[in-house]
Automatic annotation (TrEMBL):
Lineage: Bacteria, Bacillati, Chloroflexota, Anaerolineae, Anaerolineales
Pathway note: Carbohydrate degradation; pentose phosphate pathway; D-ribulose 5-phosphate from D-glucose 6-phosphate (oxidative stage): step 3/3
EC top class named in words: oxidoreductase
Similarity field: Belongs to the 6-phosphogluconate dehydrogenase family.
GO molecular function, one term: phosphogluconate dehydrogenase (decarboxylating) activity
Gene coding for it: gndA
Stated name of the protein: 6-phosphogluconate dehydrogenase, decarboxylating
Subunit structure comment from the entry: Homodimer.
Pfam families: 6PGD, NAD_binding_2
Species for this entry: Thermanaerothrix solaris
Reactions listed under catalytic activity: 6-phospho-D-gluconate + NADP(+) = D-ribulose 5-phosphate + CO2 + NADPH
EC number(s) recorded for this UniProt protein: 1.1.1.44
Amino acid sequence: MKKADIGVIGLGVMGHNLALNFERHGYRVALYNRTAEKTRSLLASAKPDQQLIGTYSLEEFCAHLERPRRILLMVQAGKPVDDMISALQPLLEPGDILIDGGNSYFLDTERRHETLKDTGILYVGMGISGGEEGALWGPSLMPGGPYQAWENLAPMLRDIAAKAEDGEPCVDYIGPRGAGHYVKMVHNGIEYADMQLIAETYHLLKNALGLSAYQLADIFEKWNQSELQSYLIQITAEVLRKRDDETGHPLVDMILDEAQQKGTGKWTSQNALDVGAAVPTISAAVDMRILSAFKHERVQASRILSGPTKAYQGDPANLINLTQQALYASKMIAYAQGMGLLRQASLEYGYDLKLDRLAAIWRAGCIIRARLLGDITAAYQSDPGLVNLLLAPAFRDTLASHHQALREVIKIGIDLGIPMMGMSTALAYYDAYRSERLPANLIQAQRDYFGAHTYRRIDRDGIFHTEWT
Ligand code: NAP
């Protein structure tokens, strides 16, 4: 029997569809899942001529793979990945490539790389974005690890990846060790921020103007034809238009307002603190999910704590227009924060990330795909040393024309008592970054007062301490 070009372990939502994606591109795929039933049902739903080989033990699985073996692990992140690696290790030989395509924490990937590096097994931590559909029809892929493994995998990964408008596959070598999973983590952090900003826009327009979900769907659909064009805006319009079959109401109005999270946004925030990068809008998005989960407390507090009661008096069309600009401006600032974190982390961990390439492979396939990513790619291509995306001419100019709308929209939210945590942090980041002088002089003085932490002066070199009392 002809051996398989690649094997997939873990036939859940993602593994199932990635296996079919490889097969559709002419690759013979070996399959293995802990629960045999999933393997059987995938094979039962396949056409007879599909090149899929079902296997029911890891020994059988490894025996069916062409050497060097290429194995894609698509199991739950965490212990299942470690368990799988331990079980596979005795069955593999030097040169074999083991890819973890799950959302593993990048420091776990660093540790696994360290453990496997002397065995000759090439360990690849690959971020995958695009969800269920992307896995089947073309995801954005972020492989990190040994370059030798990338050279072997590149043709296959280019085949299955999403293609950007110019036809370029949305995959590239990201960097050594845990770089692929690091970049996927920050991608998700940016995704959190983007979703939060959209949610605030929805909240403001809904409450200030009393618009129905279907009216809001029209607005988002229109925005999707503008500079805001993106997958998240597109699905927002589709979500808002969906009717609940049971009640006849818009489905979104029937959904409990408690956002869940799987951890990648939190990891991004935590890591940003570690590497010393400011990502307040990503952190605000995590905070708002946390606050949303206190539903019971919020219901109680809504009856105890007071706030403004007035209604919006302005022109609805003007508010819609301002909100569109505010959303775009805050989105640009949030992406600038995410790219800033990647820049800082690249230095910290020696990943040598190419920011233009990262933006380029996010142009299609992934959840944050957006017209804006073409502009980000162009900004880093024309200035690879760009220290902050906000300084790129296209960003600088758009923010010059949009920041006032962002201020106006936040003020309206404040007046109406609508939380605008994402937009407010985006504007504060923008204003802080463009401030020649911040009040950190006072903080330094306070630190020196209570802890003799010393300070530097603006008029001469040296370290100073004052006896303040
Ligand atoms: P899923 O549908 O829940 O499938 C999980 C898979 O992991 C199943 O095949 C399951 O096997 C296997 N598994 C769990 N624990 C195991 C263990 N201890 N030993 C062996 N196998 C085990 O998950 P998924 O959505 O495909 O996600 C897989 C990975 O991709 C996760 O890391 C996820 O974060 C990441 N990811 C998901 C998405 C998405 O949109 N869903 C997007 C990007 C990345 P059984 O059938 O035996 O339970």
